[in-house]
Amino acid sequence: MCSERRVKEILGIWVLSLCLVWVQNGVGVHSSSPTEESQPYRTGFHFQPPKNWINDPNGPMYFNGVYHLFYQYNPYGPLWGNISWGHSISYDLVNWFLLEPALSPKEPYDINGCLSGSATILPGPRPIILYTGQDVNNSQVQNLAFPKNLSDPLLKEWIKWSGNPLLTPVDDIKAGQFRDPSTAWMGPDGKWRIVIGSEIDGHGTALLYRSTNGTKWIRSKKPLHFSSKTGMWECPDFYPVTNGDKKGLDTSVQGNNTLHVLKVSFNSREYYVIGTYDPIKDKFSVVTNDFMVSNTQFQYDYGRYYASKSFYDSVNQRRVIWGWVNEGDSESDAVKKGWSGLQSFPRSIWLSNNRKQLVQWPVDEILKLRTKQVNITNRELAAGELLKIPSITASQADVEVSFSLTNLTEIELIDSEVVDPQLLCAQKNVSISGKFGPFGMLILASKNLTEQTAVFFRVFKGPNKFLVLMCSDQSRSSIAQEVDKSIYGAFLDLDPLHEKIPLRSLIDHSIVESFGGEGIACITSRVYPKLAINEQAELYVFNNGTQSVTMSTLNAWSMKRAQIVPIG
Ligand code: DQQ
């Protein structure tokens, strides 16, 4: 005879199996509806739990056929606190099951928060998590955790190592400036390496540690990299890249054609440099501009996007990144909404063919959410023209558009080395007419255009090449006064004389993630329209320049909702 407990277990497994089948087939079982009048800012296909606070993505990994996403999470409310590792799993990076938190702040070494960290898959294969604990004295220490049961396909339960903390802030490391261990990589000497974010003598630093067994870590005399131009570095990420086929590389891979990326988080932005890495000397030599030496410093995203973390997806041989997209409204709004924070849509990331920068693009699995489509080809947009794109759900859409220009003469001159693109977008906003531009899209626009988020381009001439400026302008995104209305900008390294100027925007109620030049510059905005919500939102393309531009193609799709389903 079955005991009551056994019956519950069997029922639980049955319900879970059914849920897995439903979600794998894209059938909805439950999630809160973003179309509810009271929740117009909930997203349809960006990751967010049903309620509460989230921040940094932590320890993303692919293991045994399952994607795991952990994230900084307050299980008890919509503001920062009780910081735990929320845990969700997916089979396609689109639809998610929400599990119980994997790590909760319960031990003396993490009682004030299980802060950010990374996963590493050791030989076996056997995943581990390295994370920062804010200890009983509010010192930041590094800890180790591993799955309780490797044969559980979902790795639901995680155990903290009995020898924690692994590392404490000693010598010149300040107690509050020692956090966010990276994924480990192995050098040719068989030793594992990690970097940890810090600030030493006022300089942003990626401290380097080595270990033979994963539990005893020795600090290298030299950091992997540091900068005298920045303060504290958070969430360092260090990984190899190569060009040619958009493929990613596993974190320990070395090769002749390989460069390395160091990404660090500071000033609310995600800055990266590219360089060569000698794993014998552990010497990283930057080949792009180093951190903060120029206005054209590379960022993963020139908008609202922070504390990102990448992982190698071995089944699709790609590197995927997630980033935290925080709110631009107030704490009292968060309390009213009952939630705060989103994760960006996961992006593939690779080295551009000219090996000068990174390229990002939403993972292909997003295509399964596309539904009703509108297509327009070769449509001239006359000076001052505004064209409404009909028939799609403009509040939840994926739009790809590309523009081409001719007769590129007598264009305004600027020097991208001295001009800050974000300031330029603010000075030359959407209402200021130039020769070529502004042209682009008006997103989440209300019927009379009182509200609109303009994502657009302008073309300038630099000292020796054309410059394409991409802007995401939130200044008219809402009639509400108290929400952030920043204007973001970036230069695109493309030649408008010979190339089209492509733009893709993922529009999802309160987030607009835009990819310019097929992913050579990304800008994420958070917006809180009062009028342009749900079915009231409209989408336009426009040209407010004095010259006509050709819209070579426009494809826009209504998007289905992803399933984000809690399971116990
Ligand atoms: N957030 C985490 C830290 C990290 C910061 C704590 C970045 O570990 O440095 O929630 O957003």
From TrEMBL:
Domain Glycosyl hydrolase family 32 N-terminal, residue spans: 46-362
Please tell me whether the keyword Signal is annotated for this protein.
yes
Q: Does the keyword DNA damage apply?
A: no
Q: Which organism is it from?
A: Cichorium intybus
Could you tell me the keywords of this UniProt record? Glycosidase, Hydrolase, Signal
Q: Signal peptide location in the record? A: 1-28
One protein family per Pfam = Glyco_hydro_32N
Q: Gene3D superfamilies attached here?
A: Exo-inulinase, domain 1, Glycosyl hydrolase domain, family 43
Recorded family membership: Belongs to the glycosyl hydrolase 32 family.
Molecular function as annotated in GO: hydrolase activity, hydrolyzing O-glycosyl compounds
- Annotated PANTHER family: BETA-FRUCTOFURANOSIDASE, INSOLUBLE ISOENZYME CWINV1-RELATED
Task: Outline the extent of the Glycosyl hydrolase family 32 C-terminal domain.
Answer: 365-558
InterPro entries the UniProt entry points to: ConA-like_dom_sf, Fructan_Metab_Enzymes, Glyco_hydro_32, Glyco_hydro_32_AS, Glyco_hydro_32_C, Glyco_hydro_32_N, Glyco_hydro_beta-prop_sf
Task: Tell me the CDD domains matching this sequence.
Answer: GH32_Fruct1-like
Q: What biological-process GO terms show up in the record?
A: carbohydrate metabolic process
Q: What is this protein identified as?
A: Fructan 1-exohydrolase I
